[in-house]
Specification:
There is one protein chain. This protein is of the alpha+beta class. It has three domains: 117 residues, Acyl-CoA dehydrogenase/oxidase, N-terminal domain (Butyryl-Coa Dehydrogenase, subunit A, domain 1), CATH 1.10.540; 102 residues, Butyryl-CoA Dehydrogenase, subunit A, domain 2 (Beta Barrel); 149 residues, Butyryl-CoA Dehydrogenase, subunit A, domain 3. Helices cover 50% and strands 16% of the residues. It has twelve helices and ten strands. It has a four-stranded mixed β-sheet. It has a four-stranded antiparallel β-sheet with strand order 2-3-7-6, with no helix packed on it. Strand 4 and strand 5 form a beta hairpin. The chain is globular and about 80 Å long. The N and C termini lie far apart (43 Å).
Length: 381
């Protein structure tokens, strides 16, 4: 179910990376179901990702990475392959970049030298702590504070539904102060930091709540300038949002392959399911949706490689299109497979559960559509 890659304009280096990521995905097939059912880091998955060296894509070459800068197209290629194999593996890979990119862009030389090589080698796990009980899509409602006292920073508040909470070695944390919204880098072992599990999701995920109980940090823990956090947050989204679309395409492709194999081998009324018109229509509609989503995704990823900030709207379009398509595709695939699509723990059942959250995280579809519509209208004469 791999698409003709020539239509995606991938060069030799990108095709080699794609094969590398697919090989990693194939290597973890025996532990994928177990890992995808866990809400804590799976040691075998972490070992496999570390040994693959792919996490080095998440930092610049000067700090142990593979490329001069983090490449959105490369991240997208890898996430498509990893999500098809295991949502746990995909998440672990993605969060190394999402959780550390603010350090890459806004960190001091000391912060970069200390943390980024550890991110690249997977010695340290990263996390981005933005959301709170009353601050999800609307980050202006953040209540966690930082104040400067006696030459030190004091962080107080709580974060909710944070990916990698409880597993990460540091938290890039959004806080408010008199100057506005700021970012601080909080080591997970700092006194006053505590974590607890978030409510279990329909698709298990390493997720937790964080409490900062008057956490004292040096002033050097700041990331970027006071009150300028959103520039670093938007820079992170500009690089990584399109990769969610890549992951959605991988999930959809995996589900469609499961359904297509079932339709070809399963017989009803004396002939394969594939020979029944309604089933063929479900499969054809799904492949059409998948290929349209992939084309937009890779177009957006190529644009993000050239200028992430300028192409953020197109990345948002790809994220909406691909995640919405993945949900439609997986639902059709369950229908094609009938009772076989409802077996708990089966690949298609896992894809079904994993698809739904993708329309919510890193920008809910409805929120992103507001920005897309505004950009459209603003572009008119």
């Amino acid at each position: 179910m791999n698409s003709p890659e020539k239509w995606l304009n991938l060069g030799p280096a990108e095709l080699a990376l794609q094969e590398e990521a697919r090989a990693l995905g194939a290597s973890v097939a025996g532990i994928a179901a177990e890992a995808d059912a866990m809400s804590e880091i799976h040691p075998g998955m972490r070992t496999a990702l570390r040994e693959s060296g792919l996490a080095a894509l998440m930092v610049p070459a000067s700090y142990g990475g593979r490329n001069p800068d983090v490449d959105p197209l490369a991240v997208c290629i890898v996430r498509e392959a990893l999500m098809r194999a295991s949502s746990h593996l995909d998440s672990m890979f993605a969060l190394q970049g999402i959780g550390s990119y603010a350090i890459t862009r806004g960190g001091t030389d000391e912060q970069k030298a200390h943390w980024l090589p550890k991110v690249a080698s997977l010695e340290s796990l990263a996390a981005l702590a933005l959301t709170e009980e009353q601050a999800g899509s609307d980050l202006k409602n953040v209540a966690t504070t930082v104040v400067e006292k006696n030459g030190e920073l004091v962080v107080t508040g709580a974060k909710s539904f944070i990916s990698n909470a409880g597993a990460a070695d540091f938290y890039v944390t959004l806080v408010k102060e008199e100057a506005g919204l700021s970012l601080v880098l909080v080591p997970a072992d700092a006194p006053g930091v505590s974590t607890s599990p978030s409510p279990e999701l329909i698709a298990p995920h390493v997720l937790g709540e964080i409490v900062f109980d008057d956490v004292v940090l040096p002033t050097s823990a700041r990331l970027g300038q006071p009150g300028k956090a959103m520039s670093l947050v938007l820079a992170t989204l500009a690089v990584f949002r399109v990769s969610v679309a890549g992951a959605a395409c991988g999930l959809a492709a995996g589900a469609l392959e499961e359904a297509a194999r079932h339709a070809r081998s399963r017989e009803q009324f004396g002939r394969p399911l594939l020979k029944h018109g309604p089933v063929a229509q479900l499969l054809a509609d799904s492949w059409n949706d998948l290929e349209m989503a992939r084309l937009l995704t890779y177009q957006a990823a190529a644009a993000a490689r050239e200028d992430p900030a300028a192409s953020l709207n197109r990345s948002s379009m790809a994220k909406v299109a691909a995640t919405e398509a993945a949900c439609r595709i997986v639902d059709r695939c369950v229908q094609v497979m009938g009772r076989w699509g409802l077996i708990a723990g089966s690949p298609i059942e896992r894809y079904y559960r994993q698809a739904r959250p993708m329309r919510v995280y890193e920008g809910a579809s409805e929120v992103l559509k507001l920005g897309i519509a505004k950009t459209l209208c603003d572009s008119l004469d």
